[in-house]
C-alpha cells in the first residue's frame, strides 16, 4: 500500500499508479492513521513537518520519497537509524533555479528594481550599470543545482568557483572547489555568493555575522538553498550597516516571511516566495520522478536519487 501526504491539492497524474497499487491519500492530520500498514510514503507536501510526529504508526514502511531536492523535513533520528530507504526529486529544479540565479544577478547588475521604481514615478534618471562579465561567483554547494548554476554563470562570463565537502582543482563544472571548512577564507574573493547547499547540521547557520564580515562590502548574497543556512538577524544587520551590498532571497528561516520582517522593505533586497524552481508544469515533473521510482520499486530495481541519510543528501558522482 502507498500513502500520499498532500496539502491543499492532490498530486496530478497518479492514475497509472492507482491502477497498480492501493493508494491512500491524506493530509497532515490523518497521516498517522494512513501510515499504518503502508509500504511506501510519497511526501508530495514537501513543506510539511508532520512525518516525524506520525512515524510511530509506520509499522511496515520500507520507502519514503519526498517531492523536493531538500530532505530535511523527513530526515529525523528515527528514519536515519532505520532501514527505510529515502529518495528525493533531485534533477527537477536544477535548471530553473540556475535561471533564477542568473536572473537576480542580472537584476542587481542592471539595477532593474530601481528602473521599475523610477518608471512608476515617470522619472527619467540615467545611470550606469555593472557588467557580469569578469565578476566572480562563489557557489556554496556543488550538487546538481550548484553545477547548473555554475554552467549558466560561466556562459555569461562570470568566473565561478565552488565550496564543497572536499577541495579539488580539476572539477569539470567549477574548476576549483574549496573545502567547506575554508569558506571564510574564500568569501572575500566573490562578488556574488550563491547558497545552494543542503540543510545539515554542518550547514545550518553557516552564513552568520562572521561570514558577512568576511565578504566584500560590494558583494551580494543569493540564497536558493534553505532559509536556515542564513542567520536572518545577522543578515539584516549586515545589510543595514553596509557590510554587504545586497541579497536575493527565495527561502527563509520562517515561511511565509513575516509581515514585520525588515527584509520586505530594504531597497537592496530582492524577496521571492520560495519559487525559484517552480516552473509551469513542475508538479507534473515531480510526480513523473516519483512514478519512475515507483515502477522501479515494484520491480525490485535500483531506485534513483537514494539519499545518504548520514550525509543528508544524494551523494554526487562528481
UniProtKB/TrEMBL annotation:
Ranges of residues in domain D-isomer specific 2-hydroxyacid dehydrogenase NAD-binding: 103-276
The keyword Lyase belongs to this UniProt entry's keyword annotation: no
Claim: Transcription regulation is one of the keywords in the record: no
Domain of life: Bacteria
Keyword terms: NAD, Oxidoreductase
PROSITE patterns reported in the protein's UniProt record: D_2_HYDROXYACID_DH_3 (PS00671)
D-isomer specific 2-hydroxyacid dehydrogenase catalytic domain: residues covered: 26-307
Coiled-coil positions: none
CDD domains listed in its UniProt record: 2-Hacid_dh_1
UniProt cross-references to Pfam families, sorted A to Z: 2-Hacid_dh, 2-Hacid_dh_C
Family per similarity comment: Belongs to the D-isomer specific 2-hydroxyacid dehydrogenase family.
Protein's name in the database: D-2-hydroxyacid dehydrogenase
Species assigned in the record: Allokutzneria multivorans
Lineage: Bacteria, Bacillati, Actinomycetota, Actinomycetes, Pseudonocardiales
Amino acid at each position: 500500500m502507498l500513502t500520499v501526504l498532500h496539502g491543499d491539492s492532490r498530486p496530478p497524474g497518479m492514475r497509472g499508479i492507482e491502477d497498480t497499487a492501493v493508494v491512500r491519500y491524506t493530509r497532515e492530520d490523518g497521516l498517522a492513521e494512513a501510515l499504518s500498514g503502508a509500504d511506501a510514503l510519497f511526501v508530495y507536501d514537501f513543506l510539511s513537518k508532520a512525518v516525524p510526529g506520525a512515524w510511530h504508526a509506520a509499522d511496515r514502511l520500507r520507502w519514503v520519497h519526498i517531492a523536493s531536492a531538500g530532505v530535511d523535513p523527513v530526515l529525523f533520528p528515527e528514519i536515519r537509524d532505520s532501514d527505510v530507504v529515502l529518495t528525493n526529486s533531485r534533477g527537477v529544479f536544477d535548471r530553473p533555479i540556475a535561471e533564477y540565479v542568473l536572473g537576480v544577478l542580472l537584476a542587481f547588475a542592471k539595477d532593474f528594481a530601481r528602473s521599475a521604481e523610477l518608471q512608476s514615478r515617470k522619472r527619467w534618471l540615467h545611470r550606469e550599470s555593472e557588467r557580469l562579465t569578469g565578476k566572480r561567483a562563489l557557489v556554496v554547494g556543488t550538487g546538481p543545482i550548484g553545477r547548473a548554476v555554475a554552467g549558466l554563470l560561466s556562459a555569461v562570463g562570470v568566473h565561478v568557483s565552488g565550496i564543497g565537502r572536499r577541495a579539488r582543482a580539476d572539477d569539470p563544472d567549477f574548476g576549483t572547489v574549496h573545502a567547506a571548512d575554508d569558506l571564510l577564507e574564500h568569501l572575500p574573493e566573490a562578488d556574488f555568493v550563491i547558497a545552494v547547499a543542503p540543510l545539515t547540521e554542518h550547514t545550518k547557520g553557516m552564513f552568520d555575522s562572521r561570514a558577512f564580515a568576511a565578504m566584500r562590502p560590494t558583494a551580494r548574497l543569493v540564497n536558493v538553498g534553505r532559509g536556515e543556512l542564513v542567520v536572518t538577524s545577522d543578515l539584516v544587520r549586515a545589510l543595514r550597516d553596509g557590510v554587504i551590498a545586497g541579497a536575493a532571497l527565495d527561502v527563509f528561516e520562517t515561511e511565509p516571511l513575516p509581515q514585520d520582517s525588515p527584509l520586505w522593505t530594504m531597497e537592496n533586497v530582492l524577496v521571492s516566495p520560495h519559487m525559484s524552481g517552480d516552473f509551469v508544469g513542475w508538479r507534473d515533473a515531480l510526480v513523473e520522478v516519483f512514478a519512475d521510482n515507483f515502477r522501479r520499486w515494484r520491480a525490485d530495481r535500483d531506485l534513483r536519487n537514494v539519499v545518504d541519510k548520514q550525509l543528508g543528501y544524494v551523494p554526487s558522482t562528481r
